[in-house]
Amino acid sequence: MEFLPLFFDLKESTALVFGASDAAARKVEILLKAKCRVTLVAESLNASLEEKSGTSLFSHYLKIDDTLWESAHLVVAATNDAEEDKRISEKAKSKKIPVNIVNRADLSSFVFPSIIDRSPIIAAVSSGGELPVLTRLLRSRLEATIPHAFGRLATIARKYRSEVKQQISSINTRRQFWESVLEGRFADLVFSGQEQAAEEELQTKLEQQVSDKQQVDGEVYLVGAGPGDPDLLTFKALRLIRQADVVLYDRLVSEPILALVRQDAERVNVGKERSNHLVPQDSINELLVKYAQEGKRVLRLKGGDPFIFGRGGEEIETLAEQGVSFQVVPGITAASGCSAYSGIPLTHRDYSQSVRFITGHLKNDTCDLAWEEFVQDNQTLVFYMGLTGLPTICRSLIEHGMDNEKPVALISKGTTRHQKVLCGNLSTISELANQEQISAPTLIIIGDVVNLRDKLKWFS
Ligand SMILES: C[S@@+](CC[C@H](N)C(=O)[O-])C[C@H]1O[C@@H](n2cnc3c(N)ncnc32)[C@H](O)[C@@H]1O
After folding, report:
1. Distance between CA atoms of residues 133 and 374, nearest Å
2. 157 Cβ partners below 8 Å, 6+ apart?
3. Mutate-to-test residue for ligand 1 from 232, 254, 301, 309, highest number of ligand atoms within 8 A of CB
4. H or E element that contains 318
5. Pick the catalytic residue: 250, 296, 305, 406?
6. CA separation, residue 241 to residues 96, 150, 244, 247, 263 (Å)
7. What number of H helices and E strands is found in the chain?
8. At residue 221, what are phi and psi to the nearest 5 degrees?
9. What is the DSSP letter of 213?
10. What pLDDT does 361 receive?
11. How many Cβ atoms from other residues are within 10 Å of residue 281's Cβ?
């Protein structure tokens, strides 16, 4: 190891910082966050340093003198003058004061890592000052996997540390207890902001552990998997996908997203296709309750957003009636995903001031919809589940007064590498869709915004 990572308490210490560069300002910021006193030596201050002056831990000197050197516990320099930086490094080393010269690991006795701050949990990544871009990339990966409320989790758990130690004397049992608590419902409750309920959960777990009456509570996660591209998942969705014991998924959930599910998790395909309901809705609702009552963490994974034409409401209604706990995680709905990946903004100051999400699902070959409301200027219509009914939709809009040359786009398998976009107008699009053999899932966008695609398309 070139550098040993150590975590120092700097609250009673003073850092002597040289220079008023942006790099120096960033280090000052970090030191102040660690509640370290900062003595800055620079002929002038940049705007960000100016903001610090006046705060109690920060003082500014135009010139260095011996008393400043004597009070320093560590030294940082980013003067933009290589010779000056070198002199500072040599002087600090001769006085045995730890020194960091920004971007000069060879002149430094310590380096600043990239920090993931979930106080009181801190993670630090370093390449010894050699490859800052790589460490930043690694840091953003870690950032993505550590929920922001992780610090709250640690703070709350810390409150119970001594009580748990008192009640559970065996180290091994204590470790198992904390593992089950920190990976279980307690953690989920903290992450979803229900801290009071989280503390109650922890207390109950502890009582059960002590009285040896272990009883596991299951939970259902109703998660929106987005329209297809796995990069469009939310951090929260990813975390819950990775921890679920059993997964009930739909036809619309893409393979790369299913691949994120734990290897040992049970997978149940309840996928629904038009007129081919693999598992009827009532049975899905019952399955969710059954698995949760067995104490499992049940992931109900749905394409897009669960509350937009996803019947998510019905599923959690059953859970609520049965007293099963659940969480809902929104996903990017097909309209947002397809709009972004086809270069067709759903609203635009010049062409559309409102947007409607409409079901195009036909009942008895007709769409019983408020067609007259759809025929308005400056509005975008988005039809979900409308491919089979496309001729009926186009005909109905024309019959209710929409210009038969109104632009229409069909986006098939949007956001995936199989995405296909077909543009036409109300009179031509059905024929074009037949010719091009457009297949489900397909979203229909109708409105003048469709014309923007020529200029704004970027994904192919
Ligand atoms: C039952 S709805 C589910 C909608 C989903 N809950 C959502 O928020 O996107 C299914 C319809 O969504 C649309 N859809 C879903 N994913 C799509 C995709 N990747 N590309 C195009 N359309 C999609 C299609 O219109 C499909 O018929």
Report:
1. 50
2. 178, 181, 182, 186, 202
3. 309
4. helix 312-321
5. 250
6. 50, 18, 6, 8, 11
7. 19, 19
8. -110, 115
9. -
10. 87
11. 14
Distance, in Å, from the CA atom of 236 to the CA atom of 42, rounded to the nearest integer, reads 44
Percentage of the chain lying above the pLDDT 70 cut: 97
Tell me if 185 sits within 8 A of 201, measured CB to CB.
yes
pTM of the model: 0.74
Cα–ligand 1 centroid distance for 270 (angstroms): 16
For residue 384, the CA-to-ligand 1 centroid distance in Å is 6
Going by C-alpha positions, the residue among 382, 399, 390, 384 that lies closest to residue 365 is: 390
For 306-365, how does the pLDDT look when each residue is reduced to its tens digit (9 = 90+)?
999 999 999 999 999 999 999 999 999 999 999 999 999 999 999 999 999 999 987 766
Q: What is the distance between the alpha carbons of residues 158 and 174, in angstroms, rounded to a whole number? A: 14
> Would the pLDDT of 274 be above 70?
no
Nearest CA to ligand 1 atom 27: 385
pLDDT digits (tens, 9 = 90+) for 411-447: 999 999 999 999 999 999 999 999 999 999 999 999 9
Given a contact cutoff of 8 angstroms between Cβ atoms, the answer to whether 269 and 216 are in contact is no
